[in-house]
Amino acid sequence: DFHPNCNYIVGGGEDRYVRLWDLQSGTCVRHFTGHKGAVTGVKFSPDGRYIASAGTDGRLLVWDIALQKMAALYQTSEPQFRGMTSLAFSREGNTLAAGGVDNCVRFFSMEVATTHTSSQEHLTPDPKVNPAGFEMFNFRTKQTPVLALHFSRKNLLVGVGAFGQ
């Protein structure tokens, strides 16, 4: 995914790392570790401050680029959740949608993931793990794995899937 200023790109893969690349120099300027399986989806927030990543380990991670640390972690033991592949931020960046082969679109609150409850909380190295209210709700399809998600200019979520696959 491209950073909003178009100078950076983020990617992930089988090696379990999320890497931030500088397009002008061609070098990796940051790498984030936290997945225990392959990284299957990455997305920049609209303001460019956060990266969301999903993996085959059933984890959804939110990374703070400026502080170079994991801000929040959503982890589930549900085996069907482990196929999350598509991520999309709402236009204002306060909602993150995630979809995948579990035939479900989940909605997460970025405000819960990134709001600090104390003036010193941002200094702690520990991320928020399954914070209350992070997963706001989910929408199940009948038999359709979610292959791609996108918020329109009017902030409507568009999903693409393969029915019956």
From TrEMBL:
Signal peptide: none
WD repeat feature ranges: 1-31, 32-65
Keyword tags: Repeat, WD repeat
UniProt-listed Pfam families: WD40
GO cellular component term, pick one: transcription factor TFIID complex
Gene3D superfamilies: YVTN repeat-like/Quinoprotein amine dehydrogenase
A GO molecular-function annotation: RNA polymerase II general transcription initiation factor activity
Listed GO biological process terms: transcription initiation at RNA polymerase II promoter
PANTHER family the record matches: CANNONBALL-RELATED (PTHR19879:SF1), TRANSCRIPTION INITIATION FACTOR TFIID (PTHR19879)
The name this protein goes by in its record: Uncharacterized protein
Source organism per UniProt: Plectus sambesii
